[in-house]
Design a protein that fits this description.
The chain is an alpha+beta fold. It is built from 4 helices and 14 strands.
Length: about 240
């Protein structure tokens, strides 16, 4: 979030340390032993260099699939999963809002689940129902007394972040980065078919410097993409 004083900074620092300590637990034994898996859920705000995570996902996918890095595209897909569901004990985990009975997976088969992203200049509307092809879409921010709220901070659900061969992406979703995982600005497509809007992802709410990633987030109609771009909607990693 935006500057919140010393107490806010201290709370964020504690959360960062908690995530790192939990991750280090997989090193039990030798300090040189590499972890065999990522945590079930990663808070992007707890990473020193989030861009390095994307590069590592590309390299891991290239090794697993036996293909060149240049053939892979960064993919970020918004899920219907809430962070609390993945952090809860297995017996309490359930998929979707409203007490659905589908189990939330421990970890994806490839890529990683990430959370801690918020929107600036837009809200997020979840789409319920098993027949929904997507978990939700961008919408107008909440209003107060008939006026659009100036405050930002609509939180996105958990995202699946990974790398897939470009040939596996739906037609029209080729918005992925064209220069591989080391490009200055990575473009992450939504692997499902449908209309999307380009939303830059910044390291903080101040939106300083070059975006870490350019997300393609779902919108209701194809013509809405240009409107969200004109409004300057962005996403940022919340601390």
């Amino acid at each position: 979030a935006r500057a919140g004083g010393l107490a806010h900074w201290q709370a964020a620092l504690v959360r960062q340390l908690e995530q790192l300590l939990g991750w280090f637990a997989v090193f039990a034994g030798s300090p040189r032993r590499a972890p065999t898996h990522l945590p079930r859920l990663l808070w992007l705000g707890g990473l020193v260099n989030p861009r390095a995570l994307v590069a590592a996902l590309h390299r891991h996918a290239a090794k697993e699939l036996g293909c060149p890095l240049a053939d892979l595209a960064t993919v970020a897909r918004v899920t219907a999963i809430r962070p609390a569901q993945l952090l809860a004990p297995p017996a309490l985990r359930a998929g979707g809002a409203g007490g659905a009975t589908d189990a939330v997976p421990d970890a994806p088969d490839a890529g990683v689940f990430v959370h801690g992203l918020r929107l600036a200049g837009a809200g997020w509307r979840a789409v319920a129902g098993e027949g929904s092809a997507r978990a939700g879409h961008l919408c107008d921010p909440p209003t107060a007394d008939g006026h659009r709220a100036a405050a930002d901070g609509a939180e996105l659900p958990v995202l699946w972040l990974g790398a897939l061969p470009r040939g596996q992406l739906p037609a029209g979703s080729n918005e992925a980065d064209e220069a591989g995982a080391d490009a200055l600005l990575l473009r992450a497509c939504d692997a499902s078919a449908g209309a999307t809007a380009s939303v830059p992802l910044y390291a903080s709410a101040e939106r300083a410097g070059v975006p870490l990633l350019e997300l393609r987030l779902p919108v209701r109609r194809r013509r809405d993409g240009a409107e969200w771009l004109r409004r300057g909607v962005a996403a940022y990693i919340a601390l």
